[in-house]
Amino acid sequence: MRVRSSWEIQKSVIYALFLREVNVRFSAGKIGYIWIFLEPLLQIFIFVSVKILLFGKRSNFDYAVFITVGFIAYNLFRHIVNNSMSAFKSNKALFAYKQVKPIDTLIARLLVEIMITGVISFIFIGVGFYFNYDMHPENLGMVLLTIVWLIMFAFGFGLMVSVIGFFFTSFTKVVKLAMMPLMFISAIFYTLADLPPSASKLLSINPLVHFMELIHASYFYSITDEFVNYTYMLLWSTIPLYIGLRLYIRLSKAIVSQ
Amino acid sequence: MIRLEHVTKYFRTPYGKKYLLKNVSFIIPEGVNVGIFGRNGAGKSTLMRMLGRIEFPNQGKIISNNSFSWPLGLSGGFQGDMTGRANVKFVCRIYGKNRDEIDKALEFVKSFSELGDYFDMPIKTYSSGMKSRLSFGLSLAFDFDYLLIDETLSVGDKRFKKKSKDALLKKIESCSVLLVSHDMNTLRDICDVGIVLDNAKLYFYDNIKDAIKMYNNINS
Predict the structure, then answer these.
(1) B12 plus B100 within the same structural domain
(2) I want to staple B60 with a disulfide (CB 3.0 to 4.6 A). Which of A70, A252, B6, B136 is the partner?
(3) Among A24, A96, A256, whose Cβ lies nearest the Cβ of B81?
(4) Interface contact flag, B90 A9, Cβ < 8 Å
(5) Do the chains contact at A93 and B53, CB–CB below 8 Å?
(6) From the CB of residue A34, how many other CB atoms can be counted at a distance below 10 Å?
(7) Structure confidence by residue, pLDDT tens digits, A215-224
């Protein structure tokens, strides 16, 4: 057999896993396709309606766009973390091939999520423009940078919890429980500036809030980024990644053999 | 050639460490077909998994320049929610086959495994015989230096068993095989040398017949 470099092998493994994930997710007879669009659509619809009913239509930025951006980013984070946590278990049989390393399953799932988010964003932006919403971000570069940063945070966090969770099933349950109220405490459909100082201080503990505020502030200059703590974001996107990688290096063989 | 250097392998259990191999060093020479004997739980499958590099010694090293197949075992390395076709494609892709080679492999595996419509159904609907047919057919589509076969030949109906054995006899003209089986006739026909695993020790026999004799001694 032809000898391939490690990089070549890993590339072909990630590609094969990527196709497998896409195949499983979108195989015929599943509502996978529909749900991918329906989920953000429902989220946006519900929260826009609530906002209009409770507070009226007045706002100095387009609220529907604000919420769409928030939910797309939030779903990206949540899906990456959730899919990471189940990646090892649902690909276990494939570790019978020595080429397939556990981290490849995380990378493949990450790429699937990025692809789905990309497609959804394009469609929502297209639909938005069609209905004359101003979908144009005021600082596109910063929005994209923050999304990349968010992906790094999600991947590192997902890696850490999936390695720990593989050996302690209860840990996975705790993380899932902690993620449940995330939708309401992540500044997706409001800004910290709207809240009383005590509440915004409390919510600032949640790292996702900072990413969300930064994305919103880069999308609309009328929103302030004064609550964004860059150092805090950096810590959350590096420390879990570091711990995750360290644990992974120690434990990857055990994950393969189990 | 496969070299084992001071290999120790144990499993931690609530009743202490269970040793499968204890400080074992030995060499499997180039170009011989090896039958592996041992009672249930002696560590035959674990040895296969170590050679396939999906299980790792607690101490010591296994050194070889050769390419090994994945261990063709009863549990299979198949993801239940994928179809037979998807699984074949997956394995071809991780081995870096291009599109033409994948098509050729698909055609070959489909006809060899005789799965018919089941080829496009999820693996979880397969019987264990069907799984091992797919697994064995798939391994024939690749050129390894060593095939690691763990019991796969012992399942399946009589006709298919014969077909697999013939295919294997043809295949070992160009590669070697490490074979775990409880079928002494198959072992005698295919293998040249034998390894007996017993009490965390490993005994090597130049002649497969001696290995069979020794194995029968352990069992009696």
Answers:
(1) no
(2) B6
(3) A24
(4) no
(5) no
(6) 10
(7) 999 999 888 8
